[in-house]
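Changelog excerpt

This revision adds worked examples to the README so contributors can see how folded entries look when concatenated. The first example is reproduced verbatim below.
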Amino acid sequence: MNSQFDNGLRALQLGDHGVALMELAPLAEQGDARAQYNLGIMYTRGVGVPKSDQTALKWYIKAAEQGDALAQYDLGFMYKRGAGVPQSDQIAVKWYTKAAEQGHASAQYNLGFMCTRGVGVPKSDQTALKWYTKAAEQGHDRAQANLVQMYKRGDGLPQNDQDAALWYAKAAEQGHASAQYNLGIVYRNGKGVPQSDQIAVKWYTKAADQDHASAQYNLGFMYKRGDGVPQNDNTAVKWFILAAEQGHVRAQYNLGIMYSCGEGVPKNDKEAILWYTLAADQGYTLAQYNLGIMHKRGDGVPQNSKIALKWYTLAAEHGHASAQYNLGVIYQNGKGVPQNDQTALKWHTKAAEQGHASAQSNLGVMYKNGMGVLVDYVCAYMWWSLSAHNGSMLGAENKAAIAKEMTLDQIAKAQEMSSRYL
């Protein structure tokens, strides 16, 4: 009988489905669990027989009830997906558990995953940890990677960077790209391992070679800075391009910088505009601001104040202080927009509250002269004082000048107000 089963299995593996069916079907009818399982596989895939989840299910059940772990796992999978049966997470858990208790690594992993989310079972980090560990110890790379996250977060156990690094390494050594990337981060930051940029580069490279976009970006960044590798703008550009073509927003932004500055590539403002736009369209604030500058100046595109205003506004609304300041200047001067001191005051204030010295200086002028706001020497002094603190010589000069027109009480109040921002 073993010879008949072996012949059937070999035929199935070689794609000789007619012979496989001829050898396996009689054994399955006689109660051979291995034959029943493989017959289920044939119906699942529709090889040598019409594809039928219901018939596959029939044979899986027969094999599973005899204790066949592979059939138990596949039954769990079918109930999880609702293939040939009504979907049921609870029944999926039942069959996964039977397979997992026999050492089936993927069943152990799936149980861990379901326990972390409370799917089909009560949520339990401790139980998830148990099953992930069993699967991880058998070399299941996704279990190893998920186990790392539990150690990093301290889910169901004390947070432990050393154990996290250990499991990342096990998964990374099996070629798991995300684990390789994360192991690069671990070595870059020295979390649970001695800090090493060289080893970080090694693992980033392995992940990047598998098209992991964030690893490609990080490699580009390290070559740009010369961290763990000789500094090389050309190699940085290579990795930035690979990541950027996958939509990695920071890689797109950094390519914009490289083309704008001519670093690692010939200077090309049109290419810079292209990459900045891709990043800006994903909401990347720095790219939006740089596009505002380039459209304002006409770098790589026809000069267009309206388009510059659009990008400055998007960046400003995301909190970019220099974009907020530039908007303040545009509305203050009425360049490309109707002059509006109130709107200028609004944007200068937002930038000033982030410590932008020129915005603080302009606010001083507006409060001194009542532009868009009532005249207020105390506020003018306060903003000029902050501007001077942040390095503005004009702020220092204006502060000294207005102090001559203020009482000591006014100056004391302005100083107290400015201290809140320091």
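The second example, added in the same revision:
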Amino acid sequence: MKALKTKSIQKLLKVNQHKKITLGLTRTQKALKFINWEKPKSRILTISGTSAKFSILQIFKKILIDNKNSFAATYSPHIKSITERMEINSKLIKINVLKKILNKVYKIPVPLTEFEKLCVAFAEFIKNKKTDYILAEFGLLGRLDAVRALFPKPHIHIVAPIFFDHLHWTKTKKRNLKTLKEIVYEKISFLSADRIYISKQHSRSLKFIKYYLKKNSSKCFYYGRDFWLKKKNDKYFYQDKTRSFQIHSNLLGDFSHENAVIAIKISIDEGIAIPIIKKSLKKISMLLGRVQLIKSGKLRKGMPKSTLIFADGAHNSLSSQRICDFLYQYKNKDLYAIISMIKSKDPSSFLKPFKKFKKIFFTNMKQSNVYPKEQLNKIAKKLNIPSEITKDYYTAIKTVGNKKKAIFLITGSFYYLQDII
């Protein structure tokens, strides 16, 4: 029965695949009028960027929960179920409720994209709900993203790390400064919020961010100037101009803690007591598909206890560099990756950080726009990265002899994680 419902939802979300999608706010704005959407009275927090958006929101959400704040949230993409895209107070939307809402959205006489339909569905889901906060993750770029149509002037906006991604949506479609400037423009030039928080950025991205925010009337808080992360003796500390305290959590890696400090800074500025923030951080564990250590289940079947398996939805050069840097901290271990990607990504820049891996295995996920594993393998060979094609994850790990010393990373796309986790 569940499979039938899921199929129905896929049909409701289906758009004309042969028609080129044109980005814009007009369609969503028109659709919102059909559901009588009004500006919510909640405090609105939105987030744009290339990576870490979901992780930052999850950490902030945990703090809100311990502070007894109610919230609604929308995320993109999902991993296990489409219901992961919407929640109220940690309760995901039920599949039958989502289907009912999408049926209503489907009947709106406006030709919406899949993401636009989901955004309008989220608006319908929360429009009569009273919550302290609404958290919303932008999808593609930002300036013409449907989330902006819902929340054009949030109280808080977060600029997550920005770097090269979605190059096929840019004018030049090349990895150069002109393209990076265009990406930053699309993600932040339109911002209108009471407060804007800028996370740790690549130096080139930061230069353009400052350029576009220079005349912005919003109050801006920058990582490195107004708040930052300090690491000493493998311990992590939150610091700003007036305070410093150790972060106790189960988060893994420097970049996960960099995500935490921006959530901490916002929480402090929202008036949440530091003892509550510290208490929340202790409860934070690994996030689904984000440096996720697989501890049980079918992926670990027959594996020695010493073997580590990580799943991460990295799909651009910024996120692949970060996950590789994290894994390179493990000494005397053999690193292997099982990778599948979609065609719209840039595999060459994504794969460069994997040069220290013992071997990369390429497979095809269950996506019509999958990047053929044979082509990925050719790219890896040109980069002098040991690699081969494989049927799937299970076939790949069978070829590895000494699994006791092995670390396996499943990565390349959140869509691939949907297939395997």
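Reviewer comment on example two: The first strand starts at residue 43 and ends at 48. Residues 254-269 form the longest helix (16 residues).
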